[in-house]
């Protein structure tokens, strides 16, 4: 990759003698107002490159510019600061210097903010002009970066005013070019939904044509040859990317989307069994012509060599047909899950306890429902079973990746919410606050499709309460089962070690998601959208309603977060030490988030500008209200009072109970 010295920039240093003397017209204006560049100063060339035109005749003061550049040159400069200042800096010399500094940041750190980088490119010409060189350089050697940029551009051109569309098309045209002379991949601009027989793919292997049922001895005898074949699947990690790799990847993902669209159009009202048969038929066709060097775009460190067709299943949905599939991949390095180390006695005991919990959790799954049964098996068991029947079970780089494909919905808001959760998780870890969040990865494939990472080894509170209700009725018990009954059934007696550990995990995760619910104003918090994992952690999913949006925009759920009586009972009651621990975590989480509030607010500021996402329907007021909830000017004592207020406002809230009852009687959600 080029260093910043290899990239040509023109930085015109301000001269004090050129500075305009304030006159009557400029009197009272702020410096930012005086240095704002008109749109005419940005010139675009026909070849797709963007250059900064002549600077405004009104220059920023020398001191102000020097302080900005000092900040951008400091050791504290990071990716979060880069995107925030890319959005806020007005003077062009400082902005141009910021563009050069992008090359100094770790690529992985800046990739986390790729949605903001692309959104700023689409909506702010000044930001585009200084980030263009960085994007172009990354595009030359990074296929994952390229396809993510194109998918984000496809998404954002639908979510911002039409006046920005040509600007985005220019960048997509650039990204559709490769370093190979005379090659281009115009098909990268749109999803290819053609049938596989009509797609010009480079077929990498006939692996999908085998049924995988080989005798173990035969696999052992062929291990050397098979490993050599598998190694050939790995993509080149460095150097110029080829147009064929990008075309194959785009067509592969496009085919996954097409399958979801086809199932929705032709099998929406079919039985679950018919949907599953249709899904597996489509995946079989895809598997039989699987091209080389395609990957699951949650990261670039994997290459698919087989889709486990028989493991796939459609998921429950009223008006769409989302589905889940599992892909065998080869990693770029041995995956940590595949490293086998001798187990100590303590580890063996914990494994035995975990297996006991798994066995109990299995009974909660409805084996007659394919969308539920597919997740009944523990992830460790599923990986072990699939690997045992794989031709490449002994390859140290083997791994299995689960993927949910969802079509017909814009997942950009959901992806934005998960980005905020990852940020909250990082800042609490940095401050040493033991709060637990489980964000999951989402990749938007345009404005109406995407890939979602499943949250495995979990049960929804709805599944738990429905199962316990059925058990109670079978035993002639008319009482309403509580969440505490599940904890005692799965984790043992109240004072046992396993119960106490699960209770602690429950409190740390409940406190974390309570704060997230308060900050982001999460709605639609029924028991189908709240999960419990095998260690007792509470996990929230489905972020379709947050900030300024709510179901039907009624804003009925008025409590800061969900804190029902049965949640408090698991903690030990309001007078218990563990409930005090819960409140102390809320306070520590508030103080840590207040310290780093700009990392959250700046993301909302960037994504709210001209956005059509429902969470920003209130416009600039949404961001102001979000920042106010961090209580930056409050003292620690005032934050303690805030914790008491939030808990009292949430504890056994009438609107929370009413919404749960509404979901039960209308949708059957316990």
Automatic annotation (TrEMBL):
Signal peptide: none annotated. One of its GO terms (molecular function) is 1-phosphatidylinositol 4-kinase activity. It catalyses: a 1,2-diacyl-sn-glycero-3-phospho-(1D-myo-inositol) + ATP = a 1,2-diacyl-sn-glycero-3-phospho-(1D-myo-inositol 4-phosphate) + ADP + H(+). InterPro entries: Kinase-like_dom_sf (IPR011009), PI3/4_kinase (IPR015433), PI3/4_kinase_cat_dom (IPR000403), PI3/4_kinase_cat_sf (IPR036940), PI4-kinase_beta/PIK1_cat (IPR057754), PI4KB-PIK1_PIK (IPR049160). GO terms for biological process: phosphatidylinositol phosphate biosynthetic process; phosphatidylinositol-mediated signaling; regulation of basement membrane organization. Keywords: Kinase, Transferase. This is Phosphatidylinositol 4-kinase beta. It is an enzyme of class 2 (transferase). It is found in: Mitochondrion outer membrane; Rough endoplasmic reticulum membrane. Residues 1-46 are annotated as: Disordered. It comes from Caenorhabditis remanei.
